[in-house]
Amino acid sequence: MSRFWSAVTHTLTPYIPGEQPKLDNLVKLNTNESPYPPSPRVTEAFHENIPNQLQLYPDPNSSALTQAIADYHGVSSDNVFVGNGSDEVLAHTFHALLKHELPILFPDITYSFYPVYCRLYQIAHTAIPLTETFQIRVNDYIRPNGGIIFPNPNAPTGCPVALSDIERLLQANPDSVVVIDEAYVDFGAESAVQLINRYPQLLVVHTFSKSRGLAGLRVGYAVGDSELIAGLTRVKDSFNSYPLGKLAQIGATAAIQDRDYFEETCTHIKQTRERLIADLTGLGFIVLPSAANFVFASHPQHDGAELTAKLRERSIIVRHFRNPARIAPFMRITIGTDEQCHTLITALTDILQSNN
Ligand SMILES: *Cc1c(COP(=O)(O)O)cnc(C)c1O
Prior knowledge:
The protein is α/β, with parallel strands linked by helices.
């Protein structure tokens, strides 16, 4: 606390990112990064371009990257907005498109950055409870609102929402922006990008941090109607005209152009996930149906915090959320390599046996 802080600074409750411990030999399954490096084309592109005129500012519009993203999705470059990680894209979205008279709606159990942005930009929100089985029920969002946002698949549950349900929501909600945060969509959910030409209120947000193995580069983007994109650009150009450095633009462009590598790694992660779910279920865990690169699992006889602590003693880091109480029994486990998942299962087998 300082008397020099502005009034809003006093009211903030900052997001707490999952830890990035500096230890070697850690099985790091806590922040949903890819266990695989990015496409080799990314490093090739860096080698070819690194020394190139770093004394000059980067392209403020990231034009080549924006076009590559537009090509990937089969949309126009006017439909694409890029930012320094999708967290920044989301921040601008809250500021530019979700700040209105009425409270915005998002699930009570979801990406915990959303309430943080609400505080920062002073946006009222209503948390809509997930169902008993931890699902988003779109009918619960059909009510007056200043905007709607949820991840698909949801985090930290991993549960997907059907595209037909999203379309039903869009039809029932034509007058405020609906943001679908598709950070994990490449691991098994249906993308809403194909709907943007029919629903001018739809904004779909993607990241290079999960399915493209580039969390360290910080690149995310939004796809939507050109007027939504123009609103985001106005806020961006009132905040930071150069959010993406030259390296980020070069690396992300190379990554999105390598479809084969992308599909190969996503397929591998999905296969590992199905094996991990089977193994966890075999140990007595209850695992929510996941369409993401993580699973949300609880054990009827063991506390989530206690299991997380015991795994940590064995240098395996998973994520545990104390709040809300409803999810305290769960651990959120990122899908690692096959070897990392095997190490996890061996450790859990050992922990469960020594406890009984
Ligand atoms: C990881 C994540 C993001 C943030 O991604 P960055 O591009 O790394 O900022 C956004 N939304 C959800 C739901 C996420 O899990």
